[in-house]
Amino acid sequence: MTTPFSGAEAIVSALRPNDPILLLRADEARAAARACVDAFPGTVAYAVKVCDRPDVLKALADGGIRHWDVASLHEVRAVLSVAPDAVLHYMNPIKALAHIAAAHDLGVRTFAFDCERELHKIAQATAGDREVIPVVRLRVPNDKARFPLDGKFGCSEAEATALLRLAVEMGYRPGITFHVGSQCESPDAYRVATEIACRVAVEAGIEPSILDIGGGFPAAYRGDEPSFGSCAAAAKAGLDAFFPAFGGVFQCEPGRLLAAPAASVLVRVELRKGNNLFLNDGYYGLLSELKWMTGLHPVRLVRPGRASQAPLQPFAFFGPTCDSIDAMEGPYHLPGDIDEGDWIEISLLGAYSTVLATRFNGFPEARVIEVRETKELREAA
Question: In this structure, is residue 1 part of a structural domain?
């Protein structure tokens, strides 16, 4: 990584880059972590799948994240490499037997499951260690989320009740987790889901050792999304309705919310066809989120020394590969005089950008440049 720049204008002025650049903002990730830790009435565990860059993980740890939601043995090791004292929760409901055992050897004690066979795998791979906390994944409504996540994992209320009772019979103090879906813009969805989870616990005759309300907290792409605090408060209200003196761990797993501010992407317009802009990065690179989060990410023209006075127009984006899937319809509003050779900064792209990037058509990984927008660096630029 190079010496930090003050922002996109400074990078374009100094480098005139031909390839896309990831602008890393570790300070933003650190600040987001501190805000979440301060606002949540329990434990905050970062969902590593959203961005596993070591510099981002380190920034989040510096911001107060001590717990981590991991979904693979690779993520276990990635976190431990930057935070050796991390508390890890293996929340992928389906895991290889060998990976459960290896994670247990590395100190993991929390494992998610959503069926009886997986619970027995956890017991087998951990040699019946009663310090292990099996956490049942409950299926809850996902209708308020941009990305529903209820189609692959999660069991019904009746199934969860039976699994919790079985876990108790096996000598465990089990927990419950759920996920309302990614980019959920309804605080009430968290209250409803938490009440469902609590109702299942009561039916099973237990107080869960962990109540993990998952992630899905919305990043502020438009600026009018509900706050993390409002979602957390709604979930806490649901918990208090059933367990006003809850003695277990109340936990959440923000991912997108913490990672999105950690990066933006600087791209160049290679060709304009009407209101279609062909860029040097796209769906197969760092911009896959734009395919599904249509028109949400903030964009702006970067043209140092030649500010545009043209009114904004709606544009669609196309990536550099030969695949027609490589299209992002937007609309993205940019000055009407934008043209070949101009740069665009696309913000809030720390989430799901680097982890989903590919080398399709031979395009290499983007260069990473740290950005620190301080007064001193702006003046130096």
Answer: no
